[in-house]
Amino acid sequence: MNRIVVAAAIIDDTSRMLLLAQRRYPPEVAGLWELPGGKVEDGESRRSALEREIAEELGTAIEAGEQVGAAVVLRPGLELVALRARLAGPPPRALDHTALCWVDAGRLRAMAAAGELVPADTAWVPDLLELLA
Ligand SMILES: Nc1nc2c([nH]c(=O)n2[C@H]2C[C@H](O)[C@@H](COP(=O)(O)OP(=O)(O)OP(=O)(O)O)O2)c(=O)[nH]1
């Protein structure tokens, strides 16, 4: 069966900004920016897995919603899915990442063009730009 990695597109509706997290490991992607998340465990829904990962990685709560864009195949048997989310707890902290940042549409476009995003996540940039418009 396919394993799923879920990632959160956490958008602040007031500022129209998206939260990005800078990976600490592995070396191939260390320093690049991603949507925070992790693997869905057996018996978990995607939404509850994402809520758990965000509590672990960012020390806060989210409400996870609809899927953003298409699923990305990371390797055979492993798919990456982004879910839209809104913050429902204290400001996020980088417990597992090097840093966090809130970006607007222009900054996201510039980071994608500069190759600063984890490669798999670049597929979602048009969808994310639409959500930030
Ligand atoms: N969380 C997350 N992982 C991503 C993204 N893009 C991307 O290619 N990945 C890859 C990196 C990893 O191979 C895999 C998830 O790794 P992870 O380290 O975040 O998840 P995890 O904590 O559940 O995994 P593990 O370290 O326990 O194996 O998905 C993304 O936007 N967010």
From TrEMBL:
Give a yes or no for keyword Signal in this entry: no
Q: Which EC numbers characterise this protein's activity in its record? A: 3.6.1.55
Q: Which cofactor does it need?
A: Mg(2+)
Could you list this entry's UniProt keywords, alphabetically sorted.
DNA damage, DNA repair, DNA replication, Hydrolase, Magnesium, Metal-binding, Mutator protein
The record's listing under SUPFAM superfamilies reads: Nudix
The UniProt record lists the Nudix hydrolase domain at 1-125
Please indicate which superkingdom the organism of origin belongs to. Answer: Bacteria
Catalytic activity, as annotated: 8-oxo-dGTP + H2O = 8-oxo-dGMP + diphosphate + H(+)
The UniProt family comment states:
Belongs to the Nudix hydrolase family.
Name of the protein in question: 8-oxo-dGTP diphosphatase
Q: Which organism is it from?
A: Gordonia pseudamarae
